[in-house]
Amino acid sequence: MVSSEKVQQWKATKYIGIIGLGDMGLLYANKFSDAGWKVICCDREDFYEDLKEKHASAKFEVVKNGHLVSRRSDYIIYSVEASNINKIVEMYGPSSKVGTIVGGQTSCKLPEIKAFEQHLPKDCDIITVHSLHGPKVNTEGQPLVIINHRSQYPESFEFVDSVMSCLKSKQVYLTYEEHDKITADTQAVTHAAFLSMGSAWAKIKVYPWTLGMNKWYGGLENVKVNISLRIYSNKWHVYAGLAITNPSAHQQILQYATSSTELFTLMLDNKKQGLTERLLQARKFVFGKHTGLLLLDDTILEKYSLSKNTVNDDTDSKPLPNSHLSLLAIVDSWYQLGINPYEHMICSTPLFRIFLGVSEYLFLTPGLLEQTIDAAIHDQSFRKDDLEFVISAREWSSIVSFSNFELYKKQFQTVQEFFEPMLPEANRIGNEMIKTILSHSKEPLTQ
Ligand SMILES: NC(=O)C1=CN([C@@H]2O[C@H](COP(=O)(O)OP(=O)(O)OC[C@H]3O[C@@H](n4cnc5c(N)ncnc54)[C@H](OP(=O)(O)O)[C@@H]3O)[C@@H](O)[C@H]2O)C=CC1
Ligand SMILES: O=C(O)C(=O)Cc1ccc(O)cc1
Protein backbone atom coordinates (compact mmCIF):
# COMPACT_ATOMS: atom_id res chain seq x y z
CA MET A 1 0.00 0.00 0.00
CA VAL A 2 1.46 3.35 -1.02
CA SER A 3 1.35 6.07 1.66
CA SER A 4 -0.85 9.10 1.04
CA GLU A 5 2.23 11.33 1.38
CA LYS A 6 3.84 9.45 -1.48
CA VAL A 7 0.73 9.86 -3.64
CA GLN A 8 0.64 13.59 -2.86
CA GLN A 9 4.29 13.85 -3.82
CA TRP A 10 3.59 12.06 -7.12
CA LYS A 11 0.62 14.31 -7.81
CA ALA A 12 2.83 17.34 -7.31
CA THR A 13 5.67 16.16 -9.52
CA LYS A 14 4.53 13.59 -12.09
CA TYR A 15 2.67 14.04 -15.36
CA ILE A 16 0.15 11.71 -16.97
CA GLY A 17 0.08 11.93 -20.78
CA ILE A 18 -2.87 10.95 -22.94
CA ILE A 19 -2.45 10.49 -26.69
CA GLY A 20 -5.88 10.47 -28.36
CA LEU A 21 -8.44 12.81 -26.87
CA GLY A 22 -11.51 10.92 -28.13
CA ASP A 23 -14.27 9.53 -25.93
CA MET A 24 -12.13 7.35 -23.66
CA GLY A 25 -9.11 9.67 -23.63
CA LEU A 26 -11.33 12.55 -22.53
CA LEU A 27 -12.95 10.43 -19.82
CA TYR A 28 -9.51 9.61 -18.37
CA ALA A 29 -8.23 13.19 -18.76
CA ASN A 30 -11.19 14.55 -16.79
CA LYS A 31 -11.08 11.86 -14.11
CA PHE A 32 -7.33 12.10 -13.50
CA SER A 33 -7.17 15.89 -13.51
CA ASP A 34 -10.23 16.13 -11.22
CA ALA A 35 -8.40 13.81 -8.81
CA GLY A 36 -5.46 16.23 -8.71
CA TRP A 37 -3.07 14.64 -11.21
CA LYS A 38 -1.27 16.82 -13.75
CA VAL A 39 -2.50 15.72 -17.17
CA ILE A 40 -1.21 16.58 -20.67
CA CYS A 41 -3.18 15.47 -23.74
CA CYS A 42 -3.15 15.62 -27.48
CA ASP A 43 -5.17 14.45 -30.44
CA ARG A 44 -4.23 14.74 -34.13
CA GLU A 45 -2.16 17.86 -34.85
CA ASP A 46 -4.86 19.22 -37.21
CA PHE A 47 -7.29 19.45 -34.29
CA TYR A 48 -4.89 21.23 -31.95
CA GLU A 49 -6.27 24.79 -32.23
CA ASP A 50 -9.89 23.63 -31.92
CA LEU A 51 -9.16 21.36 -28.98
CA LYS A 52 -7.12 23.98 -27.17
CA GLU A 53 -10.06 26.36 -27.42
CA LYS A 54 -12.66 23.74 -26.55
CA HIS A 55 -10.80 22.65 -23.40
CA ALA A 56 -9.48 26.08 -22.43
CA SER A 57 -11.11 25.92 -19.01
CA ALA A 58 -10.35 22.24 -18.36
CA LYS A 59 -7.96 21.15 -15.62
CA PHE A 60 -5.77 19.34 -18.15
CA GLU A 61 -3.39 20.81 -20.71
CA VAL A 62 -3.72 20.26 -24.46
CA VAL A 63 -0.52 20.16 -26.53
CA LYS A 64 0.08 19.88 -30.25
CA ASN A 65 1.14 16.27 -30.70
CA GLY A 66 2.26 12.99 -29.17
CA HIS A 67 5.93 14.01 -29.18
CA LEU A 68 5.16 16.90 -26.85
CA VAL A 69 3.07 14.64 -24.61
CA SER A 70 5.75 11.93 -24.58
CA ARG A 71 8.75 14.01 -23.69
CA ARG A 72 7.09 15.42 -20.53
CA SER A 73 5.01 12.50 -19.24
CA ASP A 74 5.84 9.93 -16.58
CA TYR A 75 2.97 7.68 -17.60
CA ILE A 76 1.75 7.79 -21.22
CA ILE A 77 -1.60 6.26 -22.24
CA TYR A 78 -2.32 5.70 -25.95
CA SER A 79 -6.10 6.00 -26.32
CA VAL A 80 -6.35 5.64 -30.09
CA GLU A 81 -8.01 3.39 -32.70
CA ALA A 82 -6.78 -0.21 -32.47
CA SER A 83 -6.02 -0.39 -36.18
CA ASN A 84 -3.62 2.59 -35.90
CA ILE A 85 -1.83 1.65 -32.71
CA ASN A 86 1.33 0.37 -34.40
CA LYS A 87 1.67 3.42 -36.63
CA ILE A 88 1.06 5.87 -33.78
CA VAL A 89 3.42 4.18 -31.30
CA GLU A 90 6.05 4.03 -34.05
CA MET A 91 5.62 7.78 -34.52
CA TYR A 92 5.70 8.96 -30.88
CA GLY A 93 7.19 6.00 -28.95
CA PRO A 94 10.83 7.02 -29.46
CA SER A 95 10.04 10.46 -27.94
CA SER A 96 9.06 8.85 -24.60
CA LYS A 97 10.97 10.35 -21.69
CA VAL A 98 13.76 8.14 -20.29
CA GLY A 99 12.36 5.70 -17.73
CA THR A 100 8.74 6.53 -18.39
CA ILE A 101 5.84 4.06 -18.14
CA VAL A 102 3.73 3.45 -21.25
CA GLY A 103 0.30 1.85 -21.62
CA GLY A 104 -2.79 2.02 -23.80
CA GLN A 105 -6.55 1.73 -23.80
CA THR A 106 -7.07 -0.39 -26.94
CA SER A 107 -9.51 -3.24 -26.42
CA CYS A 108 -7.26 -6.05 -27.67
CA LYS A 109 -3.80 -6.12 -26.15
CA LEU A 110 -1.72 -8.29 -28.50
CA PRO A 111 -1.19 -5.63 -31.21
CA GLU A 112 -0.67 -2.93 -28.59
CA ILE A 113 1.97 -4.93 -26.69
CA LYS A 114 3.70 -5.85 -29.96
CA ALA A 115 3.81 -2.16 -30.95
CA PHE A 116 5.25 -1.19 -27.55
CA GLU A 117 7.88 -3.93 -27.65
CA GLN A 118 8.88 -2.97 -31.16
CA HIS A 119 8.99 0.82 -30.93
CA LEU A 120 9.56 1.89 -27.31
CA PRO A 121 13.05 2.51 -25.96
CA LYS A 122 14.19 -0.33 -23.70
CA ASP A 123 14.27 1.96 -20.65
CA CYS A 124 10.46 2.37 -20.77
CA ASP A 125 8.23 0.17 -18.65
CA ILE A 126 5.03 -1.22 -20.14
CA ILE A 127 1.94 -1.25 -17.92
CA THR A 128 -1.26 -1.13 -19.87
CA VAL A 129 -4.96 -0.87 -19.02
CA HIS A 130 -8.45 -1.52 -20.32
CA SER A 131 -11.64 -0.07 -18.83
CA LEU A 132 -14.38 -2.57 -19.59
CA HIS A 133 -17.15 -0.08 -20.25
CA GLY A 134 -18.06 2.72 -22.61
CA PRO A 135 -17.21 6.40 -22.04
CA LYS A 136 -20.67 7.32 -20.70
CA VAL A 137 -20.82 4.64 -18.02
CA ASN A 138 -19.89 5.53 -14.44
CA THR A 139 -16.40 4.08 -13.91
CA GLU A 140 -17.16 3.18 -10.29
CA GLY A 141 -17.33 -0.58 -9.70
CA GLN A 142 -16.76 -1.49 -13.36
CA PRO A 143 -13.88 -3.87 -14.16
CA LEU A 144 -10.57 -2.24 -15.08
CA VAL A 145 -7.86 -4.59 -16.30
CA ILE A 146 -4.25 -3.68 -15.46
CA ILE A 147 -1.47 -5.56 -17.25
CA ASN A 148 2.00 -5.26 -15.77
CA HIS A 149 3.88 -6.45 -18.83
CA ARG A 150 7.39 -5.12 -18.37
CA SER A 151 8.54 -3.19 -15.35
CA GLN A 152 12.11 -2.69 -14.34
CA TYR A 153 11.49 0.12 -11.85
CA PRO A 154 10.04 -1.05 -8.52
CA GLU A 155 7.66 1.91 -8.18
CA SER A 156 6.12 1.74 -11.66
CA PHE A 157 3.34 -0.65 -10.84
CA GLU A 158 2.39 1.12 -7.59
CA PHE A 159 2.34 4.38 -9.47
CA VAL A 160 -0.07 3.16 -12.15
CA ASP A 161 -2.23 1.51 -9.50
CA SER A 162 -2.44 4.81 -7.59
CA VAL A 163 -3.31 6.81 -10.71
CA MET A 164 -6.03 4.35 -11.70
CA SER A 165 -7.54 4.16 -8.22
CA CYS A 166 -9.31 7.53 -8.75
CA LEU A 167 -11.63 5.77 -11.26
CA LYS A 168 -12.91 3.66 -8.33
CA SER A 169 -13.17 0.74 -10.75
CA LYS A 170 -12.67 -2.88 -9.79
CA GLN A 171 -8.99 -3.41 -10.65
CA VAL A 172 -8.24 -6.81 -12.15
CA TYR A 173 -4.65 -7.94 -12.79
CA LEU A 174 -4.07 -10.17 -15.81
CA THR A 175 -1.49 -10.96 -18.47
CA TYR A 176 -2.26 -9.65 -21.94
CA GLU A 177 -2.88 -13.21 -23.15
CA GLU A 178 -5.47 -13.84 -20.40
CA HIS A 179 -7.10 -10.50 -21.16
CA ASP A 180 -7.44 -11.20 -24.88
CA LYS A 181 -8.82 -14.69 -24.38
CA ILE A 182 -11.47 -13.54 -21.89
CA THR A 183 -12.58 -10.47 -23.85
CA ALA A 184 -12.98 -12.60 -27.00
CA ASP A 185 -15.40 -14.78 -25.04
CA THR A 186 -17.27 -11.86 -23.54
CA GLN A 187 -17.17 -8.69 -25.62
CA ALA A 188 -16.57 -9.88 -29.16
CA VAL A 189 -19.35 -12.44 -29.28
CA THR A 190 -21.80 -10.14 -27.47
CA HIS A 191 -21.25 -7.47 -30.08
CA ALA A 192 -21.57 -10.04 -32.90
CA ALA A 193 -25.02 -10.99 -31.62
CA PHE A 194 -26.40 -7.44 -31.33
CA LEU A 195 -24.74 -6.34 -34.59
CA SER A 196 -26.44 -9.26 -36.34
CA MET A 197 -29.85 -8.35 -34.90
CA GLY A 198 -29.47 -4.77 -36.10
CA SER A 199 -28.33 -5.69 -39.59
CA ALA A 200 -31.16 -8.23 -39.95
CA TRP A 201 -33.75 -5.55 -39.07
CA ALA A 202 -32.09 -3.08 -41.43
CA LYS A 203 -32.09 -5.58 -44.29
CA ILE A 204 -35.79 -6.34 -43.98
CA LYS A 205 -36.38 -2.64 -43.32
CA VAL A 206 -38.12 -3.12 -40.01
CA TYR A 207 -38.08 -0.79 -37.05
CA PRO A 208 -39.08 -3.44 -34.50
CA TRP A 209 -40.54 -1.01 -31.99
CA THR A 210 -43.13 0.22 -34.50
CA LEU A 211 -45.00 -3.09 -34.67
CA GLY A 212 -47.08 -2.44 -31.57
CA MET A 213 -47.89 -5.26 -29.21
CA ASN A 214 -47.94 -7.73 -32.02
CA LYS A 215 -44.25 -8.37 -32.52
CA TRP A 216 -41.00 -7.52 -30.73
CA TYR A 217 -42.93 -6.62 -27.62
CA GLY A 218 -41.82 -7.06 -23.99
CA GLY A 219 -38.74 -6.76 -21.80
CA LEU A 220 -36.48 -9.20 -23.64
CA GLU A 221 -37.31 -7.55 -26.95
CA ASN A 222 -36.58 -4.11 -25.50
CA VAL A 223 -33.13 -5.30 -24.45
CA LYS A 224 -32.42 -6.62 -27.95
CA VAL A 225 -33.49 -3.37 -29.62
CA ASN A 226 -31.93 -0.96 -27.13
CA ILE A 227 -28.55 -2.68 -26.93
CA SER A 228 -28.36 -3.20 -30.67
CA LEU A 229 -29.09 0.47 -31.37
CA ARG A 230 -26.71 1.53 -28.62
CA ILE A 231 -23.89 -0.32 -30.40
CA TYR A 232 -24.87 1.21 -33.75
CA SER A 233 -24.83 4.69 -32.21
CA ASN A 234 -21.16 4.24 -31.36
CA LYS A 235 -18.03 4.34 -33.55
CA TRP A 236 -17.51 1.38 -35.86
CA HIS A 237 -13.77 1.20 -35.20
CA VAL A 238 -14.25 0.28 -31.54
CA TYR A 239 -16.10 -2.94 -32.47
CA ALA A 240 -14.04 -3.68 -35.59
CA GLY A 241 -10.79 -3.29 -33.66
CA LEU A 242 -11.65 -5.56 -30.79
CA ALA A 243 -13.02 -8.32 -33.00
CA ILE A 244 -10.62 -8.24 -35.94
CA THR A 245 -7.36 -7.76 -34.04
CA ASN A 246 -8.11 -10.54 -31.54
CA PRO A 247 -7.46 -13.98 -33.08
CA SER A 248 -9.50 -15.76 -30.37
CA ALA A 249 -12.50 -13.62 -31.24
CA HIS A 250 -12.65 -15.02 -34.77
CA GLN A 251 -13.34 -18.50 -33.45
CA GLN A 252 -16.05 -17.30 -31.03
CA ILE A 253 -17.85 -15.26 -33.67
CA LEU A 254 -17.68 -18.15 -36.13
CA GLN A 255 -19.16 -20.50 -33.51
CA TYR A 256 -21.98 -18.03 -32.88
CA ALA A 257 -22.80 -17.99 -36.62
CA THR A 258 -22.57 -21.78 -36.78
CA SER A 259 -24.83 -22.25 -33.74
CA SER A 260 -27.38 -19.84 -35.25
CA THR A 261 -27.33 -21.75 -38.54
CA GLU A 262 -27.60 -25.18 -36.94
CA LEU A 263 -30.41 -24.26 -34.56
CA PHE A 264 -32.31 -22.55 -37.37
CA THR A 265 -31.90 -25.66 -39.55
CA LEU A 266 -33.41 -27.81 -36.79
CA MET A 267 -36.35 -25.38 -36.71
CA LEU A 268 -36.83 -25.55 -40.47
CA ASP A 269 -36.63 -29.35 -40.41
CA ASN A 270 -39.27 -29.51 -37.69
CA LYS A 271 -36.86 -31.44 -35.47
CA LYS A 272 -38.37 -30.53 -32.14
CA GLN A 273 -36.78 -33.38 -30.25
CA GLY A 274 -33.30 -32.70 -31.66
CA LEU A 275 -33.63 -28.99 -30.89
CA THR A 276 -34.89 -29.67 -27.37
CA GLU A 277 -32.12 -32.15 -26.56
CA ARG A 278 -29.41 -29.82 -27.82
CA LEU A 279 -30.75 -26.85 -25.86
CA LEU A 280 -31.26 -28.86 -22.68
CA GLN A 281 -27.65 -30.02 -22.85
CA ALA A 282 -26.54 -26.43 -23.34
CA ARG A 283 -28.73 -25.33 -20.42
CA LYS A 284 -27.22 -28.01 -18.17
CA PHE A 285 -23.68 -27.01 -19.12
CA VAL A 286 -24.11 -23.23 -18.76
CA PHE A 287 -26.74 -22.89 -16.04
CA GLY A 288 -26.57 -26.31 -14.33
CA LYS A 289 -25.07 -24.94 -11.11
CA HIS A 290 -27.15 -21.78 -11.02
CA THR A 291 -28.74 -20.98 -7.67
CA GLY A 292 -30.46 -17.89 -6.32
CA LEU A 293 -32.24 -15.07 -8.06
CA LEU A 294 -32.17 -14.33 -11.75
CA LEU A 295 -30.38 -11.18 -12.76
CA LEU A 296 -33.14 -9.79 -14.92
CA ASP A 297 -36.85 -9.54 -14.62
CA ASP A 298 -38.80 -9.22 -17.85
CA THR A 299 -41.36 -6.96 -16.21
CA ILE A 300 -38.72 -4.45 -15.02
CA LEU A 301 -37.59 -4.07 -18.61
CA GLU A 302 -41.02 -3.77 -20.17
CA LYS A 303 -41.19 0.00 -19.87
CA TYR A 304 -37.96 0.64 -21.81
CA SER A 305 -39.55 0.50 -25.22
CA LEU A 306 -38.95 2.91 -28.08
CA SER A 307 -42.56 2.33 -29.05
CA LYS A 308 -45.09 5.09 -28.59
CA ASN A 309 -47.88 2.48 -28.34
CA THR A 310 -49.21 1.55 -24.97
CA VAL A 311 -50.68 -1.82 -24.11
CA ASN A 312 -54.19 -0.34 -24.16
CA ASP A 313 -53.82 0.75 -27.77
CA ASP A 314 -53.66 -2.84 -28.83
CA THR A 315 -55.82 -4.75 -26.42
CA ASP A 316 -57.03 -7.19 -29.07
CA SER A 317 -53.64 -8.36 -30.20
CA LYS A 318 -51.48 -10.85 -28.31
CA PRO A 319 -47.70 -10.69 -28.76
CA LEU A 320 -46.47 -13.30 -31.23
CA PRO A 321 -44.07 -15.72 -29.53
CA ASN A 322 -40.46 -15.19 -30.59
CA SER A 323 -38.08 -18.10 -31.24
CA HIS A 324 -35.32 -16.02 -29.54
CA LEU A 325 -32.78 -17.55 -31.93
CA SER A 326 -30.16 -14.93 -31.01
CA LEU A 327 -30.32 -15.98 -27.33
CA LEU A 328 -30.54 -19.72 -27.97
CA ALA A 329 -27.45 -19.41 -30.17
CA ILE A 330 -25.29 -17.72 -27.55
CA VAL A 331 -25.97 -20.37 -24.92
CA ASP A 332 -25.36 -23.08 -27.53
CA SER A 333 -22.06 -21.37 -28.50
CA TRP A 334 -20.87 -21.30 -24.90
CA TYR A 335 -21.71 -24.98 -24.61
CA GLN A 336 -20.00 -25.93 -27.89
CA LEU A 337 -16.85 -24.02 -26.94
CA GLY A 338 -16.85 -25.23 -23.33
CA ILE A 339 -17.07 -21.68 -21.98
CA ASN A 340 -18.57 -20.99 -18.57
CA PRO A 341 -19.59 -17.32 -18.90
CA TYR A 342 -19.83 -16.89 -15.13
CA GLU A 343 -16.07 -17.48 -14.88
CA HIS A 344 -15.54 -14.34 -16.95
CA MET A 345 -17.40 -11.99 -14.63
CA ILE A 346 -14.12 -10.43 -13.46
CA CYS A 347 -13.68 -9.09 -16.96
CA SER A 348 -17.26 -8.43 -17.98
CA THR A 349 -18.70 -5.36 -19.65
CA PRO A 350 -22.21 -4.07 -18.86
CA LEU A 351 -23.42 -5.34 -22.25
CA PHE A 352 -22.06 -8.84 -21.63
CA ARG A 353 -23.74 -8.99 -18.21
CA ILE A 354 -27.02 -7.91 -19.78
CA PHE A 355 -26.69 -10.49 -22.56
CA LEU A 356 -26.00 -13.20 -19.99
CA GLY A 357 -28.92 -11.88 -17.91
CA VAL A 358 -31.46 -12.17 -20.73
CA SER A 359 -30.14 -15.61 -21.75
CA GLU A 360 -30.37 -16.74 -18.14
CA TYR A 361 -33.94 -15.44 -17.99
CA LEU A 362 -34.91 -17.35 -21.14
CA PHE A 363 -33.33 -20.63 -20.02
CA LEU A 364 -34.25 -20.57 -16.33
CA THR A 365 -37.74 -19.04 -16.12
CA PRO A 366 -39.97 -22.09 -15.61
CA GLY A 367 -41.65 -23.11 -18.88
CA LEU A 368 -40.18 -20.30 -21.00
CA LEU A 369 -37.59 -22.37 -22.87
CA GLU A 370 -40.21 -25.05 -23.66
CA GLN A 371 -42.64 -22.35 -24.86
CA THR A 372 -39.88 -20.83 -27.01
CA ILE A 373 -38.96 -24.17 -28.60
CA ASP A 374 -42.63 -24.76 -29.33
CA ALA A 375 -42.92 -21.38 -31.03
CA ALA A 376 -39.67 -21.93 -32.94
CA ILE A 377 -41.00 -25.17 -34.44
CA HIS A 378 -44.71 -24.45 -34.91
CA ASP A 379 -45.02 -20.73 -35.38
CA GLN A 380 -43.79 -19.17 -38.63
CA SER A 381 -44.10 -15.54 -37.48
CA PHE A 382 -40.36 -15.05 -36.92
CA ARG A 383 -39.05 -17.29 -39.73
CA LYS A 384 -38.23 -14.43 -42.09
CA ASP A 385 -36.55 -12.45 -39.30
CA ASP A 386 -34.60 -15.54 -38.20
CA LEU A 387 -33.42 -16.23 -41.75
CA GLU A 388 -32.07 -12.67 -42.06
CA PHE A 389 -30.51 -12.99 -38.61
CA VAL A 390 -28.63 -16.16 -39.61
CA ILE A 391 -27.39 -14.54 -42.81
CA SER A 392 -26.25 -11.48 -40.88
CA ALA A 393 -24.43 -13.54 -38.24
CA ARG A 394 -22.55 -15.36 -41.01
CA GLU A 395 -21.74 -12.12 -42.81
CA TRP A 396 -20.25 -10.55 -39.67
CA SER A 397 -18.26 -13.70 -39.05
CA SER A 398 -16.82 -13.65 -42.60
CA ILE A 399 -15.92 -9.99 -42.39
CA VAL A 400 -14.11 -10.54 -39.10
CA SER A 401 -12.32 -13.70 -40.21
CA PHE A 402 -11.08 -11.98 -43.40
CA SER A 403 -9.90 -9.07 -41.19
CA ASN A 404 -11.66 -6.69 -43.55
CA PHE A 405 -11.83 -3.30 -41.79
CA GLU A 406 -13.25 -1.54 -44.87
CA LEU A 407 -16.14 -3.97 -45.29
CA TYR A 408 -16.79 -3.88 -41.54
CA LYS A 409 -17.05 -0.10 -41.72
CA LYS A 410 -19.36 -0.21 -44.74
CA GLN A 411 -21.68 -2.82 -43.25
CA PHE A 412 -21.77 -1.03 -39.89
CA GLN A 413 -22.45 2.39 -41.39
CA THR A 414 -25.20 1.11 -43.69
CA VAL A 415 -27.11 -0.19 -40.67
CA GLN A 416 -26.25 2.96 -38.72
CA GLU A 417 -27.82 5.09 -41.47
CA PHE A 418 -31.00 3.01 -41.40
CA PHE A 419 -31.42 3.60 -37.65
CA GLU A 420 -29.99 7.16 -37.67
CA PRO A 421 -33.22 9.04 -36.86
CA MET A 422 -33.84 6.87 -33.80
CA LEU A 423 -30.32 6.73 -32.37
CA PRO A 424 -30.53 9.67 -29.94
CA GLU A 425 -33.85 8.43 -28.50
CA ALA A 426 -32.56 4.85 -28.40
CA ASN A 427 -29.47 5.98 -26.55
CA ARG A 428 -31.53 7.87 -23.99
CA ILE A 429 -33.83 4.93 -23.31
CA GLY A 430 -30.92 2.47 -23.49
CA ASN A 431 -29.01 4.47 -20.87
CA GLU A 432 -32.01 4.44 -18.51
CA MET A 433 -32.50 0.72 -19.07
CA ILE A 434 -28.85 -0.06 -18.43
CA LYS A 435 -28.86 2.05 -15.27
CA THR A 436 -31.86 0.09 -13.99
CA ILE A 437 -30.33 -3.25 -14.87
CA LEU A 438 -27.01 -2.37 -13.26
CA SER A 439 -28.68 -1.06 -10.11
CA HIS A 440 -30.55 -4.37 -9.82
CA SER A 441 -27.28 -6.25 -9.98
CA LYS A 442 -25.06 -4.49 -7.46
CA GLU A 443 -23.32 -7.80 -6.94
CA PRO A 444 -22.18 -9.22 -10.25
CA LEU A 445 -24.01 -12.38 -11.33
CA THR A 446 -22.89 -15.34 -9.33
CA GLN A 447 -23.59 -19.00 -9.65
N1 LIG B 1 -15.54 3.62 -26.79
C1 LIG B 1 -15.53 2.61 -25.96
O1 LIG B 1 -16.59 2.17 -25.48
C2 LIG B 1 -14.23 2.00 -25.54
C3 LIG B 1 -13.11 2.09 -26.36
N2 LIG B 1 -11.94 1.49 -25.98
C4 LIG B 1 -10.77 1.55 -26.82
O2 LIG B 1 -10.12 2.80 -26.54
C5 LIG B 1 -9.53 3.34 -27.72
C6 LIG B 1 -10.10 4.74 -27.96
O3 LIG B 1 -11.49 4.60 -28.17
P1 LIG B 1 -12.46 5.85 -28.24
O4 LIG B 1 -11.98 6.92 -27.34
O5 LIG B 1 -13.83 5.35 -28.10
O6 LIG B 1 -12.22 6.27 -29.77
P2 LIG B 1 -12.19 7.75 -30.40
O7 LIG B 1 -12.24 7.57 -31.87
O8 LIG B 1 -13.24 8.57 -29.75
O9 LIG B 1 -10.76 8.29 -29.93
C7 LIG B 1 -9.53 8.02 -30.56
C8 LIG B 1 -8.88 9.37 -30.82
O10 LIG B 1 -7.53 9.20 -31.20
C9 LIG B 1 -7.28 10.16 -32.21
N3 LIG B 1 -6.06 9.94 -32.96
C10 LIG B 1 -5.88 9.28 -34.11
N4 LIG B 1 -4.60 9.39 -34.50
C11 LIG B 1 -3.96 10.14 -33.59
C12 LIG B 1 -2.64 10.60 -33.45
N5 LIG B 1 -1.70 10.33 -34.35
N6 LIG B 1 -2.31 11.36 -32.39
C13 LIG B 1 -3.25 11.67 -31.46
N7 LIG B 1 -4.53 11.26 -31.54
C14 LIG B 1 -4.88 10.50 -32.60
C15 LIG B 1 -8.52 10.06 -33.05
O11 LIG B 1 -8.66 11.07 -34.01
P3 LIG B 1 -9.48 10.70 -35.38
O12 LIG B 1 -10.89 10.41 -34.95
O13 LIG B 1 -9.36 11.89 -36.25
O14 LIG B 1 -8.84 9.47 -35.97
C16 LIG B 1 -9.58 10.10 -31.97
O15 LIG B 1 -9.91 11.42 -31.58
C17 LIG B 1 -9.83 2.37 -28.86
O16 LIG B 1 -8.74 1.54 -29.08
C18 LIG B 1 -11.03 1.59 -28.33
O17 LIG B 1 -11.09 0.30 -28.86
C19 LIG B 1 -11.81 0.85 -24.76
C20 LIG B 1 -12.87 0.79 -23.91
C21 LIG B 1 -14.17 1.32 -24.24
O1 LIG C 1 -19.98 -2.72 -23.02
C1 LIG C 1 -19.64 -2.93 -24.20
O2 LIG C 1 -19.46 -4.06 -24.67
C2 LIG C 1 -19.45 -1.79 -25.10
O3 LIG C 1 -19.91 -1.79 -26.19
C3 LIG C 1 -18.54 -0.70 -24.66
C4 LIG C 1 -17.12 -1.14 -24.80
C5 LIG C 1 -16.50 -1.10 -26.03
C6 LIG C 1 -15.16 -1.46 -26.13
C7 LIG C 1 -14.47 -1.85 -25.02
O4 LIG C 1 -13.20 -2.22 -25.14
C8 LIG C 1 -15.09 -1.89 -23.78
C9 LIG C 1 -16.43 -1.52 -23.68
List its salient traits.
8-stranded mixed β-sheet, alpha/beta, 19 helices, elongated, 9% strand, binds 3-(4-hydroxy-phenyl)pyruvic acid, binds NADPH dihydro-nicotinamide-adenine-dinucleotide phosphate, 447 residues, tyrosine biosynthesis, Prephenate dehydrogenase [NADP(+)], NADP, Prephenate_DH_fun, aromatic amino acid biosynthesis
Folded structure, characterized:
This protein has 447 residues and is α/β, with parallel strands linked by helices. It is 55% helix and 9% strand. The chain is built from 19 helices and 8 strands. The protein has helices at residues 4-13, 23-34, 48-54, 66-72, 85-92, 109-119, 156-164, 176-203, 219-232, 236-244, 247-268, 272-287, 298-301, 325-337, 350-364, 368-378, 383-401, 405-419, 423-439, and strands at residues 15-19, 38-42, 61-62, 75-78, 101-104, 125-131, 143-150, 170-173. It has an 8-stranded mixed sheet with strand order 3-2-1-4-5-6-7-8, sandwiched between helices. Helix 6 links the parallel strand 5 (101-104) and strand 6 (125-131). Helix 8 crosses helix 9 (219-232), helix 11 (247-268) runs antiparallel to helix 17 and helix 12 (272-287) crosses helix 14 (325-337). The longest helix is centred in the middle third of the chain and has 28 residues, at 176-203. The model has no long low-confidence stretch (mean pLDDT 91). 3-(4-hydroxy-phenyl)pyruvic acid is lined by residues 107, 132-134, 187, 190, 231, 238, 242, 349-351. 3-(4-hydroxy-phenyl)pyruvic acid (ENO) is lined by residues 107, 132-134, 187, 190, 231, 238, 242, 349-351. It catalyses: prephenate + NADP(+) = 3-(4-hydroxyphenyl)pyruvate + CO2 + NADPH. Keywords: Amino-acid biosynthesis, Aromatic amino acid biosynthesis, NADP, Oxidoreductase, Tyrosine biosynthesis. Its EC number is 1.3.1.13.
